[in-house]
Amino acid sequence: MYFSFETIQTFVVGFIVVYVIHWIKKPRLSENEPPMVPYKIPIIGHTIDFVFNADTFFSKCRKHYGDTFNLYVFSQVITIAGSEASQEIFKASDSFSLNEAVKDILPLHHVLPRVNGFDGTQHMAKMIREEITGNLSLYTGRMQEQLVISINKEIGDCSDPKVITSGQKFFSKIIARPMANIIVGEEISKHEDVVNTFANIAKGLGIFLVLPPFLSFIHPKIHQQVVTLPIRFGWNPIRKDINTLKNYLRPVLEKRLKDKEILGDKYKPPLDIIEFYLNEPGYGAKVITDEYLSYICEVLAQLIFGSVHTTARHIAGALYDFAGRPELWDDIYEEQAKIDKECNGVLAIEHVDRMVKLDSFMRESIRTFGDVAGIIHRCMEDSYTFKNNTTIPKDRIVYIYLNDSYYNKVYGPEPRSFQPYYGLNNKIPATKIDKNYYAFGAGKHACPGRFLAINEIKICMHKLILNYHIKTESGKINEKRYVGPFVLPPSTGIVFEDRKK
């Protein structure tokens, strides 16, 4: 076979270019790091397995390389922390930062510049604990009322079976209504475009979560720069929604300030989040200016995204789990019918607490529908040494290997099987965090909104199960979808049919 000089020259140049790129992009490890899992393709490393085969791949790596190991993904080294190392990370809150890690994949500091993305989450957690969790019994009736309105509007009459196919997007619309009622109050949340705004904010900010960082093969920062380029030139995925909130908030906030001034101690503050912020040092105002409205709407956008996006995902997963398991239908329905009779159709917090079978089912759904790995952290110290004597350097991104906690021997010989009454039998509610259940994080940064989320999901499931026969369109358990190590609800159909009263 004959090769021309030009062909040989091109081959040599190409080889040199590939070699140089490989040398530049070759992972640099510091001393005593967790083991690097071998890979075959330079530059690409483990990216293909990470994106398309995370569950099986991580399981093999855990078996062969131990509790912590390194992968080379999108041209950067990441550390995967198993159940033992994960406990250390959650406890070492000064050594690791969730917020700094999230900025790489969810650059909200560009979208919400006044609050710098999620930098205000510590105060937000305080607000959720005091204002929402502390008043959960007062919010229960309002959540129920708003969820019933949503269900009637989005599902409605199903005397003829109706197929719903939009999964998480669909449930974002259902969850948006009660969250709007809690966050911006009863008066503002009556407007349909405000409810739509809550669903749109969850969707608009969620766009960043599904964009694979392919440009990170060149440099990790390039992906973030390119993704946020339209934002820095004026485009904002939620600008219209922010403006809608501002238009409705201004007259309400102005009236509240005026009423406070006139009524003094006789003023009765409404129970909602905007009233909390209006009185909170650093967040309140004596005059409602355009700048203040922009600022407070960015604060609310954080809260909306965290509450609507996550809750919709969990309720979608739970409904698919219920719809695909006919062996559970009668048992869980009977519990809901009994409670409905006891409360005469009007739930109070004590009735929600008595939904023990539904609560246990919810816990199992969240466990088995959870991400393979997630709750990413960035190492903030010059280096951090785990108890197993492996060390990672500053700025290293660490993924919590969630499946290593979800699927271990605590859950029996077949930990991947669906065990609907595990929580009930072991007296572990869906909100309780332990080393085998990191769905809501752990440590002092554990999600404070989990009590609201679980109650909201239980109320919604309670109403759906009472009113409809629910099954998957295929008649089988639908497979969950993966985006890398992250799980999405199926996109297949769920059939709703009215129960005969």
From TrEMBL:
Q: Where does the source fall among the domains of life? A: Eukaryota
The UniProt record gives the binding positions of heme as: C447
Q: Which residues cross the membrane?
A: 7-24
One Pfam short name: p450
> Which prosthetic group or cofactor does it need?
heme
Q: Which Gene3D superfamilies match?
A: Cytochrome P450
Keywords recorded for this protein, A-Z: Heme, Iron, Membrane, Metal-binding, Monooxygenase, Oxidoreductase, Transmembrane, Transmembrane helix
Which GO MF term does the entry hold, naming one? Answer: iron ion binding
To which protein family does this belong?
Answer: Belongs to the cytochrome P450 family.
Name this polypeptide is given: Cytochrome P450
